[in-house]
């Protein structure tokens, strides 16, 4: 049996997108998701995205990290499925109800409202999430924000100098973060510009992270470091993030369909 997929990316953060509405898709288990995501033996991607029917939105989007874990939000993938849909859409996710609209420069997404309570991040203890009194070597006093998924944000003088391969996993798996955490290293360069690298929960460093850009922008705005509309520059390119009316986060940026293909579930030890 051959299952169709679409390979897509948002600023180099790449996805394999399956659509359960248009064909038989095997039940998505952590093992299958990780196998499909594997860049050596699978199709290869940062996240596997499964589109399903929804009773409350245009469609439901489920997100599986490369380690197979299902998570609540993925900003770049939200733009990708918005591009695929090709018209305004509401999208049901574990992190809440989002909306996407094709726009100049790609796709505009309403990512919902940020949450700041320690137990909404979540953190293991009651703490001030604007500046958490913790540190890892010379990284200290980060902010934490939940934008559907959990993020910790370190503001540093030189984001490019951070030893992300060593410090990323150390922080991702720290017991302070019961659901683990996406780790952002940011340098604010002006009132409307931030440069960012992200160690993603369940993936590692990616070329871009949409929710990381949202969380970092919101944290910078909360600290008074930037205005309420900024350009976040990641390795793969730029996103525009605005903390807009109604406390909602608006993200605009590109999305690309790379190619289409099919895979045989039997090749992954799964019945079709
Ligand atoms: N690794 C993230 C999910 C993907 C986030 C990123 N790809 C984005 O564009 O938001 C997490 O575990 O919450």
Automatic annotation (TrEMBL):
Active site: 74, 209
Binding positions (substrate): 13, 47, 65, 75-76, 149, 182, 200-201, 210-211
The keyword Chaperone is annotated on this UniProt entry: no
Site description Could be important to modulate the pK values of the two catalytic cysteine residues, residues in chain: 151, 200
EC number: 5.1.1.7
Pathway as given in its UniProt record: Amino-acid biosynthesis; L-lysine biosynthesis via DAP pathway; DL-2,6-diaminopimelate from LL-2,6-diaminopimelate: step 1/1
SUPFAM superfamilies assigned: Diaminopimelate epimerase-like
Catalysed reactions, semicolon-separated: (2S,6S)-2,6-diaminopimelate = meso-2,6-diaminopimelate
Keyword line: Amino-acid biosynthesis, Cytoplasm, Isomerase, Lysine biosynthesis
Localization (cell): Cytoplasm
Main location: cytoplasm
Cited Pfam families: DAP_epimerase (PF01678)
Superkingdom of the organism of origin: Bacteria
GO molecular-function term, one example from the UniProt record: diaminopimelate epimerase activity
Matching InterPro entries: DAP_epimerase_AS, DAP_epimerase_DapF
Protein family membership: Belongs to the diaminopimelate epimerase family.
Job of this protein: Catalyzes the stereoinversion of LL-2,6-diaminopimelate (L,L-DAP) to meso-diaminopimelate (meso-DAP), a precursor of L-lysine and an essential component of the bacterial peptidoglycan.
PANTHER family found in the cross-reference section: DIAMINOPIMELATE EPIMERASE (PTHR31689:SF0), DIAMINOPIMELATE EPIMERASE, CHLOROPLASTIC (PTHR31689)
Subunit-level organization: Homodimer.
Protein name: Diaminopimelate epimerase
Organism whose genome encodes this protein: Novosphingobium aquae
Organism classification: Bacteria, Pseudomonadati, Pseudomonadota, Alphaproteobacteria, Sphingomonadales
């Amino acid at each position: 049996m051959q299952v169709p997929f679409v390979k897509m990316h948002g600023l180099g953060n790449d996805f394999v997108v399956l659509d359960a509405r248009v064909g038989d898709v095997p039940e998505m288990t952590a093992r299958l998701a990780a196998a499909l995501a594997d860049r050596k033996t699978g199709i290869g991607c940062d996240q596997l995205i499964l589109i399903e029917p929804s009773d409350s939105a245009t469609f439901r989007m489920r997100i599986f990290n490369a380690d197979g874990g299902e998570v609540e939000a993925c900003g770049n993938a939200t733009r990708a499925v918005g591009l695929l849909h090709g018209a305004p859409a509401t999208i049901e996710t574990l992190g809440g109800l989002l909306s996407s609209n094709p726009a100049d420069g790609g796709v505009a997404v309403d990512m919902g409202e940020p949450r700041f309570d320690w137990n909404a991040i979540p953190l293991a203890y009651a703490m001030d999430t604007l500046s958490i009194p913790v540190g890892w070597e010379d990284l200290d006093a980060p902010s934490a924000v939940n934008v559907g998924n959990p993020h910790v944000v370190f503001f540093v003088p030189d984001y490019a100098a951070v030893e992300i391969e060593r410090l990323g996993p150390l922080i991702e798996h720290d017991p302070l973060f019961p659901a683990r955490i996406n780790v952002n290293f940011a340098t604010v360069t002006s009132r409307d510009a931030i440069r960012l690298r992200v160690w993603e929960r369940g993936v590692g460093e990616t070329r871009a992270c949409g929710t990381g850009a949202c969380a970092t922008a919101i944290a910078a705005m909360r600290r008074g470091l930037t205005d309420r509309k900024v350009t976040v520059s990641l390795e793969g390119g730029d996103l525009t993030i605005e903390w807009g009316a109604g406390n909602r986060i608006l993200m605009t940026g590109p999305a690309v369909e790379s190619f289409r293909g099919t895979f045989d579930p039997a090749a992954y030890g799964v019945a079709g």
